[in-house]
Structures are given as structure tokens and as C-alpha cells.
Amino acid sequence: LNDDQGKLYEELLSEQQDLNNHIPLHIIRLQQFENQLK
After folding, report:
1. Beta strands per DSSP E along the chain
2. Can you give the pLDDT at residue 22?
3. Which spans in 1-38 are helix H?
4. What value does the CA radius of gyration of the chain take, rounded to a whole number of Å?
5. 3-state secondary structure of 8
6. CA–CA gap between residue 20 and residue 2 (Å, rounded)
7. Which pLDDT tens digit goes with each residue over 15-36?
């Protein structure tokens, strides 16, 4: 990898980490919402 590709790769990795952090919160909210409907 050259420098530009390396930077792009790291940006993608950090975005992926952000997504991984948000998804569980999203699922928890969905489950809480479903529980309220029962």
C-alpha cells in the first residue's frame, strides 16, 4: 500500500468501528420499542 491507500484504508477502518459501535445501540432501541408494544 502506498501512503494514500494507507490513509484511505485507515479511514474506512475507523468508519467501520463507528458502525460497529452504533449497531448494538440501534438493536437495543429496537428491542426496547418492541417490548413496549407487547
Report:
1. none
2. 82
3. 3-37
4. 17
5. helix
6. 27
7. 999 888 888 888 999 999 999 9
Q: What is the pTM of this model?
A: 0.51
pLDDT for residue 36: 95
d(CA 16, CA 22): 10
SS3 2: coil
- Which residues neighbour 9 within 8 Å (Cβ) at sequence distance 6 or greater? 1
CA terminus-to-terminus distance, the chain: 52
> Which of 10, 6, 7, 28 minimizes the C-alpha distance to 18?
10
What is the biggest distance separating any 2 CA atoms in the chain, rounded to whole angstroms? Answer: 54
**CA 6, CA 24: separation in Å to the nearest integer?**
28
